[in-house]
Amino acid sequence: FHSFTRPSEIKGTAYQFRDCAFSHFAGGVLTFFGGSRARSTASGHLVAGCTFRDFQHLKQTTYPAIWPRECGVAVRDCRFEDAAHNAIRLIGNDHFVGWCQFENVLRETLDCGAAYAGRNTSYLGNLFLGCSFKNTKPVAETNLSLSDTRAAAVYLDDGVWGGDIVGCDVDSARCGFFIRGGNFHRVMWNQISDCAVGLSLDRCVAKYDAIMDHFSASDWNSASTDNWFMSYYFGRNASASGSLDWNHPLWRAAYPSLKE
Fold first, then answer.
1. How far is residue 170's CA from residue 190's CA, in Å, rounded to a whole number?
2. How far is residue 57's CA from residue 25's CA, in Å, rounded to a whole number?
3. Between these two residues, 250 and 45, which has the higher pLDDT value?
4. What is the reported pTM?
5. 172: left (phi > 0), else alpha (psi -120 to 50), else beta?
6. Residue 213: exposed, middle, or buried by beta-carbon count in 10 A (0-12, 13-18, 19+)?
7. Nearest one of 166, 95, 154 to 130, comparing CA atoms
8. pLDDT band at residue 256 under the 50/70/90 scheme
9. How many CA atoms, within 13 angstroms, populate the side-chain half-sphere of residue 257?
C-alpha cells in the first residue's frame, strides 16, 4: 500500500494486519478503535510483521503510522523507518508494542517520541517491550542545547501513569526515554548508547499534587467538564465506550497502583 493521505479507521474487535508493507504516505495509516476502557476489555486488534516506510514527508502532519486508541491493541515485530514525526502514538489502556524496530524516525520534530503515549493519567497498562531505536533524533540536533531533550525514543507525556519500558535498545537519539510526570512507571533492563541524555524525568504535573489530595474517590468518579483539572488530567477524552470509574473493582484489579 502506498501514497495515501488519510488513515484507515479500524473499529470493532480482533482485526489483524500481518506482513503488510506501507510506504510513501502522508496522513497516517491505521487508527484503531475498539475494546472498552471502562470495562478493561481489550479490542484484540493485532499488527504483526508489517513495515512502514517514508511517511509524513508528502504532507507535514503529526499523524503517526499506527494510532491505537481505547483498549488492548498489540503491535509486534514491525519496522518503522524514515519519518518526519512519530511512528506510533498510544491513546488508552493496555496497548502492547513489542520487538519493533524504529530507524530514522522523528527527523523533523523537537518535542515528541518515536513511540509516544500521554496526556491523560487514566491511560494505564501500556507496555513497550524489546524494541530497538536507531537514529531517532531531529536532523537539526547538533544546534540544540543539552536542555533540549524532548525528542526521545519513548516519550511518556504530561502525567500519563503506569507506562512500562522494558528490554529496549536505544542507539543514537537526542534522549533515550523522556518521562514527563505521572507515577508508577517501570523502566527496566534497557540499553542506551550515543544519546545526549539517557533518561529524563520531568515533574510536569507535580505542582497539582496538592489539588489532587483534596478530591475524594466520589469526586473523581463524578468529575465533570466544569472542573478543568479533573476533566483534563483524569477524564479528558475519557472513553467512547462509557464513563470511567477508577474506583471500580475491575480497574483496581487491573491496575494495582490505583490502590496507592
1. 8
2. 8
3. 45
4. 0.84
5. left
6. exposed
7. 166
8. confident
9. 14
Order of strands across the sheet with 186-188? 16-18, 46-48, 74-76, 96-98, 127-129, 164-166, 186-188
HEC string of the chain equals: CECCCCCEEECCCCCEEECCEEEEECCCCEEECCCECCCCECCCCEEECCEEEEECCCCCCCCCCEEECCECCEEECCEEEEECCCCEEECCECCEEECCEEECCCCCCCCEEEEEEECCCCCCCCEEECCEEEEECCHHHHHCCCCCCCEEEEEEECCCCCCEEECCEEEEEEEEEEEECCCCCEEECCEEEEEEEEEEEECCCHHHHHHHCCCCHHHHHCCCCCCHHHHHHCCCCCCCCCCCCCCCHHHHHHCHHHHC
Q: Minimum mean pLDDT among 55-64, 144-153, 164-173, 190-199: which range? A: 144-153
CA torsion sign for 67, 12, 34, 46 is negative
**Which residue type is seen at 120?**
N
User: Residue 10 has which C-alpha cell?
Assistant: 479500524
Q: Which three cell numbers stand for residue 143?
A: 544546534
